[in-house]
Structures are given as structure tokens and as C-alpha cells.
Design brief:
Blueprint (H helix, E strand, L loop, with lengths): L1 H4 L14 H9 L8 H16 L15 E5 L5 E5 L2 E2 L7 E2 L6 E3 L9 H11 L13 E3 L2 E3 L6 E5 L2 H5 L1 H8 L9 H5 L6 H24 L7 E3 L10
Antiparallel strand pairs: 1-2, 2-5, 3-4, 6-8, 7-9
Helix pairs in contact: 2-8, 3-4
């Protein structure tokens, strides 16, 4: 029964994997994007789950800001490292990391780089929520001025919303099939060269469109969007 609830069963309610084609649709529709608060939250969540979901102690609902660190190699290459805490005895917490718990910047393709996504999310967080034990995923302000620096509240995104990240974005993107958070684990994390090139091309086009859209609103200084996540109705 537990496996079925997680989408691992072989019954009709089994989760379907999140395909590369699905991700392209979500990108094109702004549901995986650096250029709006909901898209950025989705994007960072997806990156983290793909990169660190296999790591011991990784739980999206309890993820802290200090669990994932931005670091730099001796050659100057930036990377993110999982430094999550394992509380096996309930009290002692031991930091753990390693080459299998890192994701490196893609310098040749900055528009699709997970490190750049992380840095953008870090910039959009309130300064008060950049301490090590702050919740990683924050709720979106009810009304957001995209021209403003900070898009998120000093409040954790609720567990109910985190549990339905994939379901929600796929429903909004009109992607058919039963998609759940487990769908990410079923997807292939390594793209072919052709897929990588296609993704880079699409993201470059979306970046240009976002820049043009922001420029068109620069005269008023406001570019207001309403958040899709209503933190007041969520259960933390």
C-alpha cells in the first residue's frame, strides 16, 4: 500500500515519468523559469530533486538553506554540494558531502545552468532568510513586482504544496497523465547532445522574450503578477 501511495505500484494510479518533452512544455509556458517567482521556485525544486534526491537524508519538506552550498573548485568552476544532515541518533548531526553529491555549473550553457538558477533564487530571497537553518523553499508574495529584487516571503512553503509540486505544474501546463513528485525520479537526468542543444536554444529564446517584456514595462517601473501559491491557504 505504501509503495502505491508513492506512485511505485503497478496499478492504474501509477505515476508516469516526467519526460524531456514535458519539461520543454513547462519551460515554454513559464512554469520552469528564472523570470517569474513560481517558475523559479519550480525550477530550483526540480534541479535539487534531480541532483540530490538520491542522497541520504534528502527530504524536500525539511530542506534547509544551508543543506546545499555554493562552492568553487581550484580551477574556478562553481558547483552546488549537498551538505545535508543525518540525524540517525536523533541528536548528533553530521555533515556529509562528496563528488556524488555535487552538481557543476555548465559554463558553456548559462541559460540552462542549475548553479545560475540557484544564484538567481538566492538573490530573490529576503536577506533575513539566507541563514543556514532557514527553510529552503519559501512561499511567494501574494503580489509580486517582477522589477523588485525580492519575490518571496519570510515563510516556508507549506508541506502540502511541496508534496504536489509536479502535479500542480503539470496541471497548469496541460500535460496529460498522472504526474507526481515521484515522476522526477523516473525521468532520465542525463540529456543527449541533441536534447541539450534544443534546451539551450529554447532557454535563450525565452530569455530574450523576458528581457523584451521587462523593457516594455520599464517606463512604469512596475510589472505586477499575482502569485499562484496562496500561502494563507496552505498547511505548513
Amino acid at each position: 500500500m505504501e509503495l502505491r501511495c508513492k506512485g511505485k505500484g503497478n496499478k492504474p494510479h501509477k505515476s508516469m515519468k516526467l519526460t524531456f518533452a514535458d519539461e520543454l512544455i513547462l519551460r515554454k509556458r513559464g512554469l520552469l523559469s528564472r523570470y517569474n517567482p513560481e517558475g523559479l521556485l519550480n525550477l530550483v525544486w526540480l534541479n535539487n530533486t534531480k541532483a540530490f534526491g538520491h542522497c541520504t537524508g534528502f527530504h524536500g519538506s525539511t530542506l534547509k538553506w544551508g543543506d546545499i552550498r555554493l562552492r568553487v573548485t581550484e580551477t574556478g568552476l562553481e558547483y552546488l554540494e549537498w551538505m545535508g544532515q543525518d540525524s540517525s541518533d536523533g541528536n548528533v548531526k553530521t555533515k556529509r558531502g562528496g563528488t556524488d553529491s555535487r552538481v557543476y555549473a555548465t559554463q558553456h550553457a548559462p541559460q540552462t545552468c542549475p548553479v545560475q538558477d540557484y544564484k538567481e533564487y538566492a538573490q530573490r530571497r529576503p536577506p533575513a532568510m539566507r541563514y543556514e537553518d532557514a527553510p529552503f523553499y519559501l512561499s511567494i508574495k501574494p503580489v509580486v513586482n517582477l522589477a523588485a529584487l525580492h519575490w518571496y516571503n519570510c515563510q516556508a512553503l507549506g508541506k502540502n504544496k511541496l508534496a504536489k509540486m509536479v502535479k500542480t505544474m503539470c496541471e497548469k501546463g496541460n500535460i496529460p497523465g498522472r504526474k507526481t513528485n515521484f515522476s522526477v525520479y523516473q525521468s532520465c537526468s542525463t540529456l543527449s547532445e541533441a536534447q541539450s542543444n534544443q534546451l539551450v536554444l529554447i532557454c535563450n529564446n525565452l530569455s530574450q522574450q523576458a528581457a523584451q517584456s521587462m523593457a516594455s514595462h520599464s517606463s512604469s517601473g512596475n510589472f505586477i503578477v499575482s502569485a499562484s501559491y496562496d500561502s494563507s491557504s496552505d498547511t505548513a
